[in-house]
Amino acid sequence: xxxxxxxxxxxxxxxxxxxxxxxxxxxxxxxxxxxxxxxxxxxxxxxxxxxxxxxxxxxxxxxxxxxxxxxxxxxxxxxxxxxxxxxxxxxxxxxxxxxxxxxxxxxxxxxxxxxxxxxxxxxxxxxxxxxxxxxxxxxxxxxxxxxxxxxxxxxxxxxxxxxxxxxxxxxxxxxxxxxxxxxxxxxxxxxxxxxxxxxxxxxxxxxxxxxxxxxxxxxxxxxxxxxxxxxxxxxxxxxxxxxxxxxxxxxxxxxx
Amino acid sequence: xxxxxxxxxxxxxxxxxxxxxxxxxxxxxxxxxxxxxxxxxxxxxxxxxxxxxxxxxxxxxxxxxxxxxxxxxxxxxxxxxxxxxxxxxxxxxxxxxxxxxxxxxxxxxxxxxxxxxxxxxxxxxxxxxxxxxxxxxxxxxxxxxxxxxxxxxxxxxxxxxxxxxxxxxxxxxxxxxxxxxxxxxxxxxxxxxxxxxxxxxxxxxxxxxxxxxxxxxxxxxxxxxxxxxxxxxxxxxxxxxxxxxxxxxxxxxxxxxxxxxxxxxxxxxxxxxxxxxxxxxxxxxxxxxxxxxxxxxxxxxxxxxxxxxxxxxxxxxxxxxxxxxxxxxxxxxxxxxxxxxxxxxxxxxxxxxxxxxxxxxxx
Lengths: 256, 363
Fold this sequence. Notes:
The structure holds 2 protein chains of 2 kinds. Helices cover 10% and strands 64% of the residues of chain A. By secondary structure, chain A is mainly β. Chain A has a 10-stranded antiparallel β-barrel with strand order 1-2-3-4-5-6-7-9-10-11. In chain A, strand 3 (68-82) and strand 4 form a beta hairpin. The longest helix of chain A is centred in the N-terminal third of the chain and has 16 residues, at 2-17. Chain B is of the alpha/beta class. Chain B contains 12 helices and 14 strands. Chain B has helices at residues 3-32, 36-40, 48-62, 73-80, 90-102, 124-129, 135-142, 180-188, 206-214, 268-276, 338-342, 347-360, and strands spanning 110-112, 118-120, 143-148, 155-160, 165-170, 193-197, 222-228, 241-244, 257-261, 282-286, 300-301, 307-309, 313-316, 332-333. In chain B, helix 9 (206-214) runs parallel beside helix 10. Chain B starts with a helix and ends with a helix.
């Protein structure tokens, strides 16, 4: 808990100092579409590995000056197959809401800039087989520490990569046997169930997200982006959860 | 446009294409080299032995009624595991799995092959009772002024022919509006008694059962507790949750109520009976119920495409006794035979009418 407190303090300090902006910030608002490839094993749902994927959509806002502020909402759904001849096909839904702030650590004229920052994320994943004959979910909600690097290729192009590690998270998963009295009593209020989480330890919940994106300024107001992200999650408990998700997407944004 | 500008644009496009190629290659490499298997682990083997191991271990770590039903699960492993080999047919493996789960005598435990075949543990008597009940016979011989409640899944009410007795049939504990029962009870209140028929009731939502029973409630009584298995040992359960009958003092039915049951009255149907039998004016007539109270697990999956469900909870009476594997034993035992139904007689309804006359003078 002490480490968490220190990290929050560091992030708060960075955020406060970031009020001093030396270059005119640019705002971007955009829409993206992509595909995710998932591999996971959720022992709460099945002893079998599942693989599959689906489309995902994102809506984002970014404010880029010396420092970077990012807000994003992602939604995706798809199918996962498992068992011999992929006999079992389940449907999944995933949503993510994130707010990130990156503080620049490099001189403002540098071509390559390094950032450190933090992220607040609400990450929801729900899967269901045959109209809820089997279901599972994982909700993580909390703070991550993040770092980023930005390489300006020329006036119109840059590559950016970031990585984040959760350090203070509320985690919600089904009980040991998938269903209990609480779930039965609250089955008509799914939000109550999926947010019935506990503050989790780094030992129990490990995750990271790494992304890299290429940006091209198509015109003065239009920006095109190609994006890849890798997310790895592991929940170490009796019913272990492990997932690897690769996402590729493209987006257009309006600069103002 | 002069040639200098054209050249600059051309150079920029080339640079863009070059960068694009590099980026695409990098992305492809990243995707290809994502070592999912390292993190996720290898797929489960689809060997017959491994399917058996997964099934047996999953029950061992999650099934809730080993102690209540006095099952020696380790002994069953020793009996059945040696019978599994890689040369046997799927049908032979299916028979081994079916024989294994039959020992649980728990019709909440079901094995499915994914091709519309299933095996339900301890289901022989339940299945037999299907031929010992006929809704058509009841409709044509025993009741009149029938109203079907369309908002609910299988609910109707009527009057017993030539008697001052109301009749309700409730075939499942599911529907959009369980409070519809209040209106039914209001309408049947003019009669001297109600026969509430829950034979062949397939269960459903325990909360639905509680709400239906509320219309007949005479008070708030502790009726049962529930514990859900929450660990790998057979004795691992969460803390007890207590359940009480619901009561609305402005709406209570105090006249005699006869609840009709059979072997296929199961699960939430039996929970309903836990509520009803707490009230002084209620009598159970018919056959003993199925004796399967627990909530059913999520579907569980095997590598070969078979899947299954089982009980995950332990329901106990306030005295810590369990009715799992026993069922509700009726106050008056009477049971139709297939021959009774073929002869157009429902001896259970007949017994209920006789009982109401002999005990309460209801004609």
